[in-house]
Specification:
- This protein is 42% helix and 15% strand.
- The protein has 274 residues and is an alpha/beta fold.
- It has a single domain, classed as Divalent-metal-dependent TIM barrel enzymes (TIM Barrel, Alpha-Beta Barrel).
- α1 runs parallel beside α3 and α8 crosses α9.
- The radius of gyration is 17 Å and the shape is globular.
Length: 274
């Protein structure tokens, strides 16, 4: 494996979303020697896309991704509003030079119990987004989410399911692999091999707390929990992934309550656990 330094890390702005604006995140990355950033769209829009793009360039940061597009089932079917919002997300990703537009695809439409139909809506929506993304040179990365989110956030729950969609849609689409969502999957090693370098668009890290108190907002700093993160990094790097390692932590009762500079210092200190 590579020997990681702070320059190999990317700060997903969710990690300090309660403390800092995007401008402050950019400055914080510079102070701590962190090499990249991955904004969430709310922070990006608060800053202004053009201004954010300029600040990121001036800071010399890479952009490992933009979070997030998707939510194709949000209005019960694939509506023009959803299609248009994903087109805007593609444009934002292009403007900031993001390596991939991360897709949280959406769960079951309200009142539905048909997860197969939901995945069909998602596939159609991704196809439409991808058609546009190809024209502006933006990669699309499906983020498979842990099955506990199948109903409300993402009906694509395994890397295998995500790659099945990629197989249907062709070039320009791959996966954004977050260890929080994939660490439990008994088929993950084979699916990472199946993805290969071309389709591993992002690699996200945090940790799963053994006594998790909240399924969304109780994630740990790397090394705090039970995930063998180095094993996952070995797998993706064996396939040729050499991009930024993105730290994305939702932590309402711990890391979101700490000074943001302390959080970034802890990220750098946790390099030995990645």
């Amino acid at each position: 494996m590579r020997t990681l330094t702070a320059a190999d890390l990317s700060l997903n702005t969710a990690t300090v979303s309660k403390q800092w604006t995007l401008e402050e995140c950019i400055e914080g990355c510079k102070r701590h020697g962190i090499g990249g950033i991955s904004p969430w769209r709310d922070k990006l829009q608060e800053c202004g896309v053009d201004r954010a793009a300029s600040l990121i360039r001036k800071a010399g940061l890479g952009v490992s991704g933009l979070c997030r597009g998707g939510w194709y089932t949000a209005e019960g079917a694939l509506t023009q509003n959803v299609i248009d919002d994903n087109k805007r997300a593609v444009d934002e990703a292009a403007a900031i030079g993001a390596e991939t537009l991360v897709m949280v695809v959406g769960g079951l439409p309200e009142g539905s119990r048909d997860i197969v139909a939901a995945r069909e809506i998602v596939t159609e929506g991704l196809a439409k987004t991808l058609d546009y993304a190809r024209t502006v040179g933006v990669n699309v990365g499906i983020e498979p989410l842990h099955p506990m989110y199948a109903a409300d956030r993402a009906c694509v729950n395994t890397t295998g399911q995500a790659l099945d969609i990629c197989d249907k849609l062709g070039d320009g689409i791959g996966v954004a692999l977050d260890v929080y969502h994939i660490w439990w999957d008994p088929e993950i090693a084979a699916q990472i091999k199946r993805a290969g370098k071309k389709r591993i668009h992002a690699f996200h890290v945090c940790d799963w707390m053994n006594a998790t108190q909240d399924m969304l907002t109780d994630r740990g700093m790397m090394g705090e929990g039970v995930i063998d993160i180095p094993a996952f990094r070995r797998m993706v790097e064996a396939e040729g992934f050499d991009g930024l390692v993105e730290v994305e932590i939702f932590s309402a009762d711990n890391w979101w309550k700490k000074p943001a500079d302390d959080v970034l210092a802890a990220m750098v200190k946790a390099l030995s656990s990645i």
